[in-house]
Amino acid sequence: MIPIDKLYSLFVLLAPAFTTFAALLILAIDSMRGTRGEWRLRSRVFLYLASNLFTCISLLFYYYLPDVFVRINWIFYLAFMLIQVYFYGFIFRITRTDYSERFSWWHYLLPALVALGMLVLQLTTPVAEQLRVVLSRGTYEGGERLFFLYSNSKPAVRLAFTVVYTVLSFRRLFRYQRFAVAQPSVRPNLLRWVQGYLILSVILLITPMLSLVYSRSAILDTSVMGIHVMVLVFQYCYLCYYVLMGHYVTIVEDEPPLLAATPDSALLKKNLLTHERFEEYVRTETPHLKPDLKMADLAEALGVNRTYISSFINTEYGVNFSAYINQQRLQEYQRLLADPSNEGRSKIELSEMAGFSSYKSFQRVVGREA
Fold first, then answer.
1. 118-134 CB burial, b ≥16 within 10 A, e <16
2. What tens digit of pLDDT does each residue of 125-135 get?
3. Secondary structure, 3-state, the chain
4. pLDDT for res 364
5. Cα–Cα distance for residue pair 167/162, rounded to 1 Å
6. What's residue 116's pLDDT?
7. Whole-number Å distance between alpha carbons of 194 and 203
8. Whole-number Å distance between alpha carbons of 186 and 199
9. Residue of 154, 203, 182, 186 whose CA lies nearest to 307
10. Which of 139-148, 251-260, 269-278, 283-292 has the largest mean confidence?
11. What is the pLDDT of residue 70?
């Protein structure tokens, strides 16, 4: 029978790994039905979750297969830092308000340099010495002091990255909310869930701070680590749910290559969905004539996401997406019915020409409108 303390340690290590893997799988399956723009946007979330998953697996190696861990120590260090960078990249992307804003590659420079330093030390330090440092679980027992300090600096570095990028995320979030107040089609509180996520990140800072005072193994065997893991699991589920539901509005999409020379103000005006632009699109492209039209199709054509379209139609027309499309189809049906060239066509044929998938659905809509 497995001892209780071993089961507890496995729970601490495996719970976040399983949760992260499930979140990755769910988001990947859902994204297959989305637009290319959503794939680009969610890629930051995928990388964030993948980095978390890798660190969870690496910790399993750290405690149970240390001879494997010493070979991936530098990659583990890199992933440990990139977690915060990837999440901030997602926040940066959904809070852009100007085409001139670009996520700088400088954010990746420090993690790359630190990981490179770890790799150099791994290549110049005997494997037996590396293994001894790992097995010491944060307690210096002589030997290569530089490797010991460098390898065990992860909690301090992770703490610094978390603090810096949490502050940067809060700053961008508040800036986005101030901008969104002036946009009639964007709800300023749409990203309130991100505040909740960042607050959870602040709560999770407790364990890294404690690990700077106590050894990692001591922390692992206390209820503090159990609470930390439960909050972490909830945080992953929380993020997955809100990303899955599309609770964000990207005010500025990726800059179209053909418009690169256009002034920023003109690009921003073109990108923001206005009543006139939407009406012109519906009039010229007649998307409602497609029986299988989905909200994602409209979102992709207009360069926004599904949440934006839903919010826009509700704000501008006072109805939901389905009701608006059916209203357009009914108007098209009345136009076709009044057209002399359609004399002799049946109601069934006209309803299908107007975009209804069947005559039954046409009758159902007419009944609701009556």
1. beebbeebeeeebebbb
2. 999 999 999 98
3. CCCHHHHHHHHHHHHHHHHHHHHHHHHHHHHCCCCHHHHHHHHHHHHHHHHHHHHHHHHHHHHHCHHHHHHHHHHHHHHHHHHHHHHHHHHHHHCCCCCCCCCCCHHHHHHHHHHHHHHHHHHHCCHHHHHHHHHCCCCCCCCCHHHHHHHCCHHHHHHHHHHHHHHHHHHHHHHHHHHHCCCCCCCHHHHHHHHHHHHHHHHCCHHHHHHCCCCHHHHHCCHHHHHHHHHHHHHHHHHHHHHHCCCCCCCCCCCCHHHCCCCHHHHHHHHCCCHHHHHHHHHHHCHHHCCCCCHHHHHHHHCCCHHHHHHHHHHHHCCCHHHHHHHHHHHHHHHHHHCHHHCCCCHHHHHHHCCCCCHHHHHHHHHHHC
4. 84
5. 8
6. 96
7. 14
8. 23
9. 186
10. 283-292
11. 93
Return d(Cα 70, Cα 78) in angstroms, integer. 14
* Sequence-ordered list of residues with C-beta below 8 angstroms from that of 97, at least 6 positions apart, any chain: 175, 176, 179, 251, 252, 268
- pLDDT at position 6 is 66
Under 8 Å CB-to-CB from 171, ≥6 apart: which residues?
none
C-alpha to C-alpha distance for 267 and 197, rounded to whole angstroms: 31
- Mean of all residue pLDDT scores within the chain: 81
- Tell me the CA end-to-end span of the chain in Å, nearest whole number: 70
**To the nearest 10°, the Cα dihedral for 322, 239, 102, 159?**
170
Query: What CA–CA distance (Å, rounded) separates 368 from 370?
Result: 6
Write down the pTM of the prediction. 0.69
